[in-house]
Design brief:
Blueprint: H1 2-11, E1 15-19, E2 22-26, E3 44-48, E4 60-61, E5 65-68, E6 71-76, E7 79-84, E8 88-93
Parallel strand pairs: 2-3, 3-8
Antiparallel strand pairs: 1-2, 4-5, 5-6, 6-7, 7-8
Length: 96
């Protein structure tokens, strides 16, 4: 959790954006994307939140990616990203 809180301080606050026909609420600022219309229904949430080291019950595991029903975990040197049910993306930056 400390990583996620440090990430918020480092990256600032996010916003709600429109891209690819989706309304995206992001904890990180995405200045390259246009702002969503006020009151738009959010399709995807991007959060700074701890991600697991592995997915229990993974049906596919490779060195940098694991999948399980409704979830995909990507592990890179810069951090981990957990996509859940196509609606949330949890970003867990690695500590330097």
């Amino acid at each position: 959790m400390a990583n996620a809180m440090a990430g918020r301080a480092r990256y600032g606050s996010g916003g709600v954006y429109q891209a690819f026909g989706l309304c995206i609420r992001s904890a990180l600022p995405l200045p390259e994307l246009p702002a969503a219309e006020a009151g738009a229904a959010v399709d995807v949430s991007v959060r700074l939140k701890p991600a697991p080291s592995f997915l229990p019950g993974a049906i596919e595991a490779e060195p940098f990616i694991e999948t399980a029903p409704g979830a995909c975990l990507v592990k890179t040197p810069v951090g981990r990203m957990l996509v859940s049910n196509g609606a949330t993306i949890d970003l867990d930056p690695a500590t330097a």
